[in-house]
User: Which sequence fits this backbone?
């Protein structure tokens, strides 16, 4: 197994910072072993290194806050930049017995494999993380690490915390148990994504959109994909590593992308615009259905078995009556997950479409940059001639406005129809 940070593509600065922190964390543990009352240096109220008290330099076991370890972190970056990959790798580096994420020791292995008893990954499946889930998590996070190192809690999509859940988390971060580390992942540190008070207690690790060449390199090295396919997929995925891998490997994903990129050609009138809107929505629904239906059926079967649905004993009927509530709860969770999957699928389609109009815009401006979609570059070039820079920009903005509207809870069909009309009229 390679080094735990190997899959974090094009993020050299962040990796260097995390390695330094893991080294500092190991030093805290060693100081603790020598019984010199180790403690982490909490981030200051402004969340910056400068705001931390200077006195900590002189305390045994404490660390220079600019390079050292702290107990709460936020990983930010655009989708696909590797926020959760970074958080998991850092968790492994903290549990590493031999270094700062060697990839070889049991601590690294179990963390990367998702079986380390002291690392909890919270992956929200629905639209938000609730307060109950967060309270239970915070409670368990306060226990002593069984492996003798750190309790690590990774919260993916921390921007989906409900307000109450955010408050429960804030309390834990404000008064952190001595050996607990919180790693949050969010698109940005904008107050819409993460509350100002939580952000002020965390150190921020910004990840950038990895360059296409770096994404292509990892597809070739790790996934054994042919270099020309890897390069095409990396460009088409616009820096999203997971999406690039799917495009390179999954013919269905390529077909869906082609259908999306056929939209500009098909917009020949009002009727065609509404048809295109329906097609886009239905494709997103179908994609989401395919991605969640298997998990839904497995979960339902597992719950029914656990509740004794197949049973014939005297208790079985009564158990089933009590079970109705649990099944209802499961259905609610699954519905929420399906909605999320649909939104994600639709958003991917909109990002592809935005890439097309961005290509048209850069061509109209004769900007010396490579197109996002090499396979529709000719079509984008024709668009650039017809629409000029201004018309291309208006269309690009229409796609981005549609994304923003859906994010703001406008009904997807309404937002997409408005976008298609704008794309047609220009
Ligand atoms: Zn290790």
Assistant:
């Amino acid at each position: 197994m390679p080094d735990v940070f190997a899959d974090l593509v094009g993020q050299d600065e962040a990796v260097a910072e995390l390695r330094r922190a893991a080294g500092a964390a190991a030093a805290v543990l060693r100081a603790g072993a020598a019984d010199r009352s180790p403690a982490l240096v909490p981030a200051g109220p402004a969340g910056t290194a400068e705001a931390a008290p200077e006195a900590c330099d002189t305390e045994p076991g404490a660390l220079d806050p600019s390079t050292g370890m702290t107990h709460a972190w936020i990983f930010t970056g655009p989708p696909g930049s590797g926020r959760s990959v970074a958080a998991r790798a850092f968790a492994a580096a903290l549990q590493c017995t031999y270094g700062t994420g060697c990839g070889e020791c049991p601590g690294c292995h179990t963390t990367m494999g998702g079986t380390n008893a002291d690392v909890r990954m919270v992956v929200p499946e629905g639209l938000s993380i609730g307060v109950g889930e967060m309270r239970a998590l915070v409670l368990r996070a306060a226990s002593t690490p069984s492996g003798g190192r750190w309790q690590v809690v990774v919260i993916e999509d921390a921007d989906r915390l409900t307000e109450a859940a955010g408050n429960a988390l804030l309390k834990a971060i404000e008064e952190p148990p001595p050996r607990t580390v919180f790693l949050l992942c969010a698109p940005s540190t904008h107050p819409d994504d993460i509350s100002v008070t939580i952000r002020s207690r965390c150190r921020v690790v910004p990840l950038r959109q990895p360059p296409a060449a770096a994404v292509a390199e990892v597809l070739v090295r790790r996934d054994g994909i042919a270099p020309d396919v890897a390069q095409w997929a990396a460009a088409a995925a616009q820096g999203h590593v997971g999406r690039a891998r799917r495009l390179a490997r999954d013919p269905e994903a390529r077909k869906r992308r082609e259908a999306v990129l056929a939209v500009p050609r098909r917009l020949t009138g009002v009727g065609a615009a509404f048809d295109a809107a329906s097609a886009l929505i239905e494709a997103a629904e179908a994609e989401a259905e395919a991605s969640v239906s298997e998990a839904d059926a497995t979960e339902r079967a597992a719950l029914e078995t656990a509740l004794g649905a197949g049973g014939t004993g005297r208790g079985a009927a009564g158990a089933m009556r009590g079970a109705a509530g649990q099944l209802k709860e499961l259905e609610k969770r699954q519905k929420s997950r399906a909605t999320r999957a649909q939104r994600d699928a639709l958003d991917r389609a909109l990002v592809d479409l935005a890439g097309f109009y961005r290509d048209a815009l850069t061509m109209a401006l004769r900007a010396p940059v490579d197109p996002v979609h090499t396979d529709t570059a000719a079509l984008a070039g024709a668009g650039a001639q017809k629409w000029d820079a201004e018309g291309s920009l208006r269309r690009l903005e229409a796609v981005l406005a549609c994304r923003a509207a859906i994010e703001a809870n406008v009904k997807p069909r309404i937002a997409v129809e408005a976008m298609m009309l704008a794309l047609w009229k220009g």
